[in-house]
Amino acid sequence: MFESLSKNLEKAIKSLKGQGRITEINIASTIKEIRRSLVQADVHYKVAKQVTDAIKQQAIGTNVITSVSPGQLFTKLVQDALTDLMGGLQAEVRLTGHPAIILLAGLQGAGKTTLAAKLAHYYQKKNKIPLLVACDVYRPAAADQLAKLGAGLSISVYTEPEEKNPHTIAKNAIQEAKNKGIDLVIIDTAGRLSIDEKMMQEICMLKQALKPAETLFVVDAMAGQDAVTTAQAFNEQLNFDGVVLTKLDGDARGGAALSIRSVVAKPIKFISTGEKMQDLDLFHPDRMASRILGMGDVISFVERAEQVYNVEQQRKLHQKIKSNQFNLEDLAKQIEQIKKMGNLKEMVSMLPGLGNALQDIPLNDDLFKNCQVIIASMTPKERRNPDIIDRSRRERIAQGSGKTTQEVNQLLKQFDMIAKMMKKVHKDGFNMLANIPRLLKKTR
Q: Mean pLDDT, 10 residues at a time, over the chain (444 residues)?
């Protein structure tokens, strides 16, 4: 979602020329461009001015180390300013109580129900036993949606189809959690089409009665400055603990993510970056600032990779690469692992420089479909020994996969490139994963 902002900031910083001392004169145009870039990204003008004034004050008179260019130093100053704007340090998520309770609130359409399931999945992987509670008694099929999501994750969902009082449902659910030894209760509440006074009172009373460990305001990042306005209105009455930004994979300008912490004075605690259940991350202001400036976020990438890879899998893969035994079966497995990591475009943006390099490539699961279909049409012997795939075999594979012989040839050429690349960098398995999308696109 920060593609446009990233490009504009990079362009502004590159305009900074010369060596020696940074002065008010030689950074004037750069500061102006940064402020314009932030405003275009839907950051409130006062916030944008506050940030650029801080950058300017920090930069003027700063000596440039001989081995560092003014642009590099200025990038660091901008990164620090953006990090401070978004809260500085990662905000703690408190899970106190037996069971711990997370209460979700927000406007209708913000993605609360899906987020509830993502949170349950997130904490399930951290050895918590979650219970999802359907307290949206107004939206038709809201409870059914939550039940379906829970079933897909093997997570219990508490519903009372005939009960119309959210307070009663929540109380009963918490009692059931205590009886069954469940340690985390996540409550999905009704969304609002606007700031409805009656419904605001309802959720405020629910919070007062349940005393949740965390009350999280869920907001659609694509709402722009409206998201900030809504957050202010909710916070005035609900006094929530933190914000969750959803739909960061959308075509939004990103102003909400940059402004909301400064305006509302409440931290962003989670970000949702896609439709898959694993597309949820703790919000790290420093990592987000790094990604906005095109510097990537390798730590988050590795954390995602570690969720789908274990040490033994990595050891076996490295050994096969080292001994030149990497084959098409292994490529198919790597593709599945990449898909499990979450939104592909989001993953690529975490690698320094790679996001900009691949900005014109449609990065989604369709990128892999041809490869998977063609590989599936091969015999086990062919997948393990690609060198035996001669002309007649290629024609048979093309016919069986519904693809052309040219597409089969493309895949085999791509496989050779990937195998060579992996051999070269086999000491860094996670970076190997990141390069597969680029190489699959390269010969098209």
A: 69 63 71 83 81 82 55 76 83 90 90 94 93 91 93 94 91 94 94 75 91 93 77 88 83 66 86 85 83 62 63 72 82 78 63 51 63 92 92 93 91 83 57 52 49
The pLDDT value given to residue 430: 45
Structure tokens of 61?
């008179």
pTM to 2 decimal places: 0.66
Residue 108: what are its φ and ψ, rounded to 5°?
-65, 135
Q: Please give the Cα distance from 279 to 70 (Å, whole number).
A: 37
Neighbouring-strand partners of residue 131: 156, 185
What are the angstrom distances between the C-alpha of 92 and each of 17, 89, 104, 259?
A: 40, 9, 17, 20
- Return the SS3 of 21: strand
Beta bridge partners of 245: 219, 271
Per-residue b or e along 135-165, where b marks 16 or more CB atoms closer than 10 Å to that residue's CB: bbbeeeebbebbbebbeebebbbbbbeeeee
Predicted confidence at residue 156, as pLDDT, reads 95
Handedness of CA 70, 72, 76, 78 (dihedral sign): positive
- Which whole-number Å values give the CA distances from 207 to 84, 166, 232, 248, 267, in the listed order? 30, 11, 18, 27, 19
Q: Which residue has the tokens 């409805």?
A: 196
Instruction: Quote the pLDDT of residue 165.
Output: 92
Task: Reduce the DSSP state of residue 292 to 3 states and report it.
Answer: helix
Q: Measuring CA to CA, how many Å separate 167 from each of 99, 204, 241? A: 17, 11, 20
Domain ranges of the chain: 3-85, 100-295, 310-442
Provide the 10 A C-beta neighbour count for residue 213: 18
* Distance (Å, whole) CA 358 – CA 248: 18
Q: Which fold has domain 310-442?
A: 434 Repressor (Amino-terminal Domain) (1.10.260)
Q: For residues 15 and 27, give the distance between their C-alpha atoms in angstroms, rounded to a whole number.
A: 9
Query: Yes or no: is domain 100-295 CATH 3.40.50.300?
Result: yes
Expressed in angstroms, the distance from the first to the final Cα of the chain is: 26
Residue 425 near residue 431 (C-beta atoms within 8 A): yes
Q: What is the rounded CA–CA span in Å between residue 252 and residue 4? A: 9
Give the list of residues 6+ apart from residue 283 with CB closer than 8 angstroms, or none. Answer: 86, 87, 90, 91, 245, 267, 268, 269, 270, 271
Under CATH, what is the fold of the domain 3-85? Four Helix Bundle (Hemerythrin (Met), subunit A) (1.20.120)
